[in-house]
Amino acid sequence: MAIYTLPELPYDYAELDPVINPQIIELHHDKHHAAYVKGANDTLEQLEEARDKEQWGAINGLEKNLAFHLSGHILHSIYWHNMTGTKNGGGGEPLAADGVGELADAIAESFGSFAKFKTQLSKAAATTQGSGWGVLAYEPVSGRLIVEQVYDHQGNVGQGSVPILVFDAWEHAFYLQYKNQKVDFIDAMWQVVNWQDVARRYARAKERTPLIAP
C-alpha cells in the first residue's frame, strides 16, 4: 500500500492564470509532483526489500533517492497551497487588517521590512544554481524567520527549520510560459501568494518546541 499520495489541487488549473498558465499547473501537478510521490513510495519498497534480504549495497543511493523524492513531495504540497488567484485575495503583502498581522510583524522583525524580505526571497529563489527553491522558513531555535535556498530538493536547509512559503525555481515550474526568464517568473509569483495560508503555517510552526539539549 502506498504511503504517500498525490494531494488534489485546492483550485482548478486556471486559478493562477495569467501568472501561471493552466498548462503549466496541469503538467507540474499531474506529472512532476506525481513522479515524486511515486519515487518516494518506490524507494520505501526498495528499502523494505533491502531490510528483509539484509542486502545493503545500494543503501547510499536509496537514502538519497528517498530524500530527493520525499522533499519534492513535501515542498510541492506546500507550494500549491501557498498560492491563490488574485480574485481570491492573492498577492500584495500581509497586513494586520487581513488577519495576518502576527506574520507581518514577524517579517518586519526578522528582515527589517516587508520590502527587504521580498527582495531577499526573490534573490534567493532567482539565484539558485540549476534547480531549486527559495524558502521562507521558521527557525525554532532563534524563534525568527529566515530565508533559505534549497538545492534540487535537499541541500542547504537549516536543521529543524519549518518551510512556510516556497517559491519553486525549477524550470518545469515556469519554462513553458517564461522561457529562460526565471527572474520574471519569481517577480510574478508575488501576485499570487496566499498570505492566509502562510500565516497559518507560521502559527503552527511556532507551536513546535525543538529539543536541542537533553
UniProtKB/TrEMBL annotation:
It comes from Streptomyces ficellus. It comes from the Bacteria. Keywords: Metal-binding, Oxidoreductase. Belongs to the iron/manganese superoxide dismutase family. The keyword Oxidoreductase applies. Residues 101-201 form the Manganese/iron superoxide dismutase C-terminal domain. Residues 4-84 form the Manganese/iron superoxide dismutase N-terminal domain. Destroys radicals which are normally produced within the cells and which are toxic to biological systems. It catalyses: 2 superoxide + 2 H(+) = H2O2 + O2. It holds the Pfam family Sod_Fe_C. This is Superoxide dismutase. Its EC number is 1.15.1.1. Gene3D superfamilies: Fe,Mn superoxide dismutase (SOD) domain, Iron/manganese superoxide dismutase, C-terminal domain. SUPFAM superfamilies: Fe,Mn superoxide dismutase (SOD), C-terminal domain (SSF54719), Fe,Mn superoxide dismutase (SOD), N-terminal domain (SSF46609).
